[in-house]
Amino acid sequence: MRLDKFLKVSRIIKRRTVAKEIADKGRITINDKIAKSSTDVSVGDVLVIAFGNKTLTVKVEALVESTKKQDAGEMFSVVSETYKEQY
């Protein structure tokens, strides 16, 4: 499954176009390699996503083409969530 589609279906990022923009700016890594929006995601991959002042690390648990909102959380598990200090 493409990275941008995984981020949307899992509801980590609400819109696929936003997921594509973030990935193509080099702010997402898969297994320590910078990923583009078209990069394939597999079960067991570790994604590190850099949002403004937050860095989210998740592990892919399942790949589903479409899911309901309440089931989206089963597609990944949060490894860590860190915030940068603002001055």
UniProtKB/TrEMBL annotation:
Which CDD domains does UniProt cross-reference here? S4
A GO BP term, please? rescue of stalled ribosome
The UniProt record lists the RNA-binding S4 domain at 1-64
- Which SUPFAM superfamilies does its entry note? Alpha-L RNA-binding motif
One Pfam annotation, family name? S4
- Gene Ontology molecular function, alphabetical: ribosomal large subunit binding; rRNA binding; tRNA binding
Keywords in alphabetical order, please: Protein biosynthesis, RNA-binding, rRNA-binding, tRNA-binding
**Quaternary structure annotation from Swiss-Prot or TrEMBL:** Associates with stalled 50S ribosomal subunits. Binds to RqcH, 23S rRNA and the P-site tRNA. Does not require RqcH for association with 50S subunits.
Function, as annotated: Key component of the ribosome quality control system (RQC), a ribosome-associated complex that mediates the extraction of incompletely synthesized nascent chains from stalled ribosomes and their subsequent degradation. RqcH recruits Ala-charged tRNA, and with RqcP directs the elongation of stalled nascent chains on 50S ribosomal subunits, leading to non-templated C-terminal alanine extensions (Ala tail). The Ala tail promotes nascent chain degradation. RqcP is associated with the translocation-like movement of the peptidyl-tRNA from the A-site into the P-site.
The record's listing under HAMAP family reads: RqcP
- What family does the entry list? Belongs to the RqcP family.
**UniProt protein name:** RQC P-site tRNA stabilizing factor
Q: What is the lineage of its organism?
A: Bacteria, Bacillati, Bacillota, Bacilli, Lactobacillales
